[in-house]
Amino acid sequence: MTESMPNEAVRDAWIALTQDVRTGVLLTMRNGKPFGSHVPYVLGDNWTRVYLHLSQLALHTQHLRQDPQVSLFLSEPDHAEKNPLALRRINLQGTATILSPDAPTYAQMKARYLARFPKSAMTFGFADFSLWELQLQDAHLVLGFGQAYQATAPSPDHWIHQQPERNK
Question: Residue ranges of the Pyridoxamine 5'-phosphate oxidase N-terminal domain (predicted)?
Answer without folding.
Answer: 16-140
